[in-house]
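Protocol check, entry for the methods section draft. Step 1: assemble the input record (protein sequence plus ligand SMILES). Step 2: submit for complex structure prediction. Step 3: store the structure tokens unaltered in the notebook. Ligand used here: magnesium ion. Step 1 record:
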Amino acid sequence: MAKAPKNKTPRSPAENLDFALHSLQEELEKTKRYDASEEQLKHFYEQMLLIRRFEERAGQLYGLGLIGGFCHLYIGQEAVAVGLQSALTEKLDSVITGYRDHGHMLAYGIDPKVIMAELTGREAGISKGKGGSMHMFSTEHKFYGGHGIVGAQVALGGGLALAHQYNDDGGLCLAYFGDGAANQGQVYETFNMASLWKLPIVFVVENNQYAMGTAVGRSSAETEFYRRGTAFRIPGMKVNGMDVLEVRQAAEIAFKHVREGRGPVLMECETYRYRGHSMSDPAKYRTREEVQDVKEHKDPIEGLKKILIEQGNSEEDLKAIDKDIRKVVSEAADFAENSPEPDPSELYTDVLVEEY
Ligand SMILES: Cc1ncc(C[n+]2csc(CCOP(=O)(O)OP(=O)(O)O)c2C)c(N)n1
Ligand SMILES: [Mg+2]
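Step 3, stored output:
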């Protein structure tokens, strides 16, 4: 792997490209995993468990007909959003993602009640019940959606990063997209401009191994997604997205690079989606054994549980956390079920900007 040159000899174009590709990856490999305090470890555990239990409940509510339309669950991918978003500066940095967005909102500390109310199409929902699963939004938290058009959030994220740079507010944009979305043309148009203008943006590919039903190897000529920024001189990082501490460590390195004004970073988080693409997908394109193997050997929550136990926490302590979280999720579901639906007049609000 290429090293940054020690002397001042100018790099050849090939060395330049190699350097652009590998400098941050090397740093990730050289430094230790993120050294979290016990309190932080527990917080990561709670957040990941909250996402898991919330999503399980959302799946049940969908089955009962209480959630309509599309619904994409984040089960299996929890460590990505929790690790990355824990390193953001709250209310300064912005986040944008695709339709698999509930977990990102929860990782951002947004109230589970308003997320569940949105899923069930209620007035109290974060988008007043009009957005549903795919279109959640909170300008207060600088969370810019929730987008159903695959890859569109990447270009919008470029715009958010440009706003950070233009306003000189010191913030950065975290733009998530999937391995399938990584083949969209607008992603590369955004890479070009983001690199040219040194925009403060971290592009994160959540490589969960499948798009709507197609395995990455069947749809992508280059499956090492972290290399896809090379042509634009964007350094890439390949991260174990099932390990919240490695994700957090990678976030520290990437965010520092971006905040220093050195332009974008492309981070690939290798992860896995336990459920089908959406609720209507029985996921027949993969074997049960494959899913079981990931659950048994790579699960992000079980992995962190092991660390917490090694540090002296008992099974009972961790069960108590789970119990509290189940209660939070039940309260969110009750709140959602008992909230009124929006008034039909809501159909005409937030459609046009009427006043600037
Ligand atoms: C522009 C566009 N093309 C196609 C679709 C249909 N579609 C929805 S999700 C999806 C697959 C995306 O897969 P990936 O980016 O890997 O994300 P994941 O669902 O795995 O999180 C497709 C093709 C769409 N919503 N928008
Ligand atoms: Mg995918």
